Each structure stands twice: as structure tokens, then as C-alpha cells.
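User: Predict the complex.
Assistant: Input components as received:
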Amino acid sequence: MIRIEKMHKSYPIGKDSLHVLKGIDLHIKEGEFVSIMGSSGSGKSTLLNIVGLLDIHDQGNYYLNGELIKDMNEKKAAILRNKFLGFVFQSFNLISYKTALENVALPLYYKGINRKERLEIAMDYLDKVGLKDWANRLPNELSGGQKQRVAIARALVTKPKVVLADEPTGALDSTTSDSVMDLLKDINKEGMTVFVITHEEEIALQTKRIVRLKDGVIISDELTKIGKAVELCLI
Amino acid sequence: MFDLDRWREIFQSINKNRLRSVMSGFTVSFAILLFTLLFGIVSGLSNSFTSAFADDAQNSMQVRVRKTTKPFKGLQTGRVIQLRNDDYNFVQDTYKNKIEYQSARVYKNFTLKYKNEANNYNVTAVNPDHQFLEKTIIDQGRYLNERDLNEKSKVIVIGRLIKADLFGEKPALGKRLNVNGSSYLIIGIFSDEGGDNEERIAYIPVTTAQSIYGNNDNISQINLGYNPNLSLDAAIAFGNKIERDLRKKLNIHPDDQSALSVRNMAEANKGVGMFMGALYAIVILVGSGTLVAGIIGISNIMIFVIKERTKEFGIRKALGATPASIIGMVVQESVLITTIAGYLGLSLGTYILSLIGNSLEKDYFIKDPSVSPGIVIGATVVLILSGLIAGYVPAKRAANIKPIEALRAD
């Protein structure tokens, strides 16, 4: 699903440049539940942004769903994002003047689906995350956990291939964190590839595979207990 | 291209950010309001000037004579100049092609009497063309004609107010009027837009006046209407030429303005035309300045708005919005706001102008101020264009920010 070969990325800082990713090789297959761990500055957010087509890498190859990502223009990237990717952000990134339902329906608007159908599909997904009764609330009338569940519903509404979650529990307390992680696990159980970035060990342990990043290099890449168990079951 | 969903998005965005939308609309409304008022007032001034000259024909010229003030060819100053039929015929024969109407004028002051009512009035002896030169409006009967002149008939055309003075409500047409002792047939009653004085005049044939009163061929004044095909400059040149030729014919010093002069409407028209032209130029300058200020105002607000919405655009992009769809959304919103706001300003301006109406005519010479449909259409086009520009430039910039940077904005 995602294949990264010898990826480099640096950012210019004044006259110097900051080398953030130093030759990353990563292969994530369809249906995996991967967490990227690392302290801040390790390059994990940069990696997610590149995988999410929100940023462009300097060197190396990136294949998304078998397609080589190269010479992306904004329009092409926008279409691919809409088609293949769903985003969940630490700060939720809901549009403040739209209701929960309208926020969830927005990706479908860019997909060109008519309004009636859009709202029906969006309502199904809100129901899935348990927020059907909150559909007509504005984001600032929702709790943090509810906002993140709306964001997850929005990420799922286009039936993407990969859900990218950037510190999805970073702004939540432990109880709501658990409910959000449960939701992500459910999604993964249904066969969707989930890609989580976190710096919390407990969160990472709930995924199936942990990739540790330090100073722009992968220092370890191993299955968690859950991941091993699933592996054993498959065998 | 009508896209209901797109409009729904825009209305939602405007509705949820009312203060912002109202603010950006206000600058445009205000600019258009000022522009409309300015233009309306100048057109009101222009209307006043036009109607001030509406009394007489726009192409009229008058040859007037008085005493000489300069000696010439041994003739002394203070000589009284008298126009005669000979001069009238000279003008008629020499400038046939350049003249549309021609009439002599002999001024008299007579007592007009009907039964027991009598009063003194100015009686002017004229040719039939005089009707067109003076824009006399015949209410009843007819004006003087060539036959009256040839037969030196004792007929008279009286002003509406003379009729009112002497006859009251009773009919006057066809009655006989005592003019300085002789009996005249009333053949017509007229009105004139030049005011009351112009309606207390009576007209009789010039030939009748010359033969009955003094038996001479004296003329007080020659009135002409120059050929309307002449340009203003050509008409002015024509007036000057008549002046020169007649001074020469009557042995007057070529520069003796007092002895013989031609009062030429073309000169006044040219002056008014230049004045109005200058006024319109100023208005267009000031008006477009105001519009430009309005456009810059809305551009500024749009820049601010787009900065404020950068994060929203980032979110939209992450969800699959193309840059074009974001630019389109912002531009459409901006055009919608400018157009609506502009129309509000325009309607308010037109409404104020209609309230002003003719109330400022007496004191400020502003008559029926209004804006023409051409100006309205022009202003609309400018508004839509300005909305396009005001929205496009900052939206283009915002759409080109990388989504990752846009998402980081706060």
C-alpha cells in the first residue's frame, strides 16, 4: 500500500538546511495498523505529511497504492488525497462554522457527490462513531473526544485506502484516548490500513507494528504483542 | 455555470461571517454611493444649464446696434446706428446657406385695449420665422405668415398673459383689439417657456409696423438662426463674419463692439459645453478615485479574510479541494459581496437623488439629478471586475500555500 525507498527530506533554515529525513525505507502492506514513534524532531510528522501528500520529498521513491508519486501538482495531489487518504489530526481541524454532519460530508463535496446523498452517507458514519444525536452541533459545542470522533468519521467517509492519524490522542485525556483508539482498531479490523503517529508508548502498544524514528533514521521496526498474536493466528 | 452546492457553501461562509462580509461590503457600498451622488449632482447641474438656454432656439444669433464709440472714416463717435431692410436683405442674400431662420424685430410699446380693459405692452414686429427663433408655442389660432407680411395686414398674436389681462376667461381669438388707436384682428394666442415677461408680448407683422408707424424701413434688431449643420466653431466664425461685414457696410470701426454686435448662442453653448466637460472630467476623476479606493479597501479586507481562513483552506485541501476550487470559492464570494453591496450603494444613491429631485434647483442650480442607465451598467461591470480582482489576487496566493503550511497556520 505504502512503499518508501531511501527517502530524504530537508528544510531550508536561513542559509543552512535542516536534514529531517535521512534515507527512510518503509513498506506498509494493506490492512496494517502501524504506529510511528519518536520524540519531537525525530521527523515523524514530516514522514506523515509526505505520505499524506501534504508535503513533497526531496529524494527517494514513494509509491502510494502502487503509483509512483512524482512531479505532483496541487491538483493531482488533491485528487489523490480525496481518493486514497483520510486524515485525523491532533487538533481535530474541523471547520468551525460547519456542523458535525457538514464537516463529515465535506470530503464528499469535493468528490462531487450530490448534497442529499452526501448528508445520508455522512449521517451513517456519524452513527458509526456514536454521534448521530450530535449531528447538528457546531464543533465548539462538542467535547475533545467527540470532535476527534467527528474527525475520524470525516476521514472514513470517502472509504479511503489509508487513514493517517497525527497524534490523534495528543489533545485528549486517557479515557477519551482509549475510545478513540478503540475506534481506530475497529476501522483496522474492517481491513483499512491505519498509520498512526504518536510519542506515547501506551498508544503505540495498541497498534500491531511499531516503527521507531530517531534523528531522521529508523532505529527499530517490530511487531507488537498484538501484532505477533495476529501473525500467529494467520499462520 | 450554476452550481447550487457551490452557492450553498458561499452563503454559509458569508452567513457565518457576517461582520466580515458587511465590512467588506460597506467600503464598496460607500464608494458607489459617493460616485452616484457626485454623478447625479453634476448631471443635475447640466440639466439646469440646458434648461436655462431652452427659452430661445439653441442656434439663435442677434444683430444689435447702438451708438458708435469709435470714430471711423471721418465719422464721429456717438453716431446712432440704424438697421434697415437693406441690411436685412444683405444678410439674407449673402449667407443664404448658413441661415436656417431669419427675422427682423421692431420694438414698439403700445396701449392695447379691449372694451374697458387696457394696458401698455411691448409689441414686437417680426417675420414669421421669429416663431422658431423664440420658440413661441401657439396655444390657439396661428402665428404670423408670409401673406400677413405681404398684405401688411393688421393682425396680432398675443401672449397668454395679455389674453388673461384683457379678456379673462372669455375667448379672445378672432376678436378685434385696439392697438394704439387702430383695430387689429387677434389671430393667435401663444405661450413661452421664458417666463412671464415673454408671455406679456404681442407680435405684429414687421411690414405693418414699418408702414403704419413712421412709414420707414427701420429695424431694431435682426434675429438669425444659423444652419444647425454648422459646428459650434463654424457658427462662431459665421457670427464674427456677419459682424465684420455689417460694420463695413454701415461704416463702423471694425472693432466697435458697442455700435454693432452679434450675440451668438454658439459662443454661450461652447462655453457651457467646455464647462460641463471640465466638470464631468473632474467627476470621473474623483469618482473613479473613490471606486479605486473602494476596490483597494475590499482587497485589503479580502487579504485579511484569507489569512484568517488559511487554516480552513488547508483543511479543505487535505480533504481533497483543488487550488482552483478554493480560488473559485473565494472569488465567487467576493464578486457576490461587491455586486450586492455595490447595488445597495447604487440604489441608495439613486433614491437620495430622487428625493432631492428639483428641491435644490432655486438655490444650487441642480435640476432633476439622476444617473443614466449607461452609468449604472458601467458601474456594475466595474463592480464585478473589482470583485474578481479583489478576490482573485489574495485567493491565488492562499491557494498556493502548501497544505502543510496552511494547516499549521493559526
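The mean pLDDT of chain B is 83.
Let me know if you want any component modeled separately.
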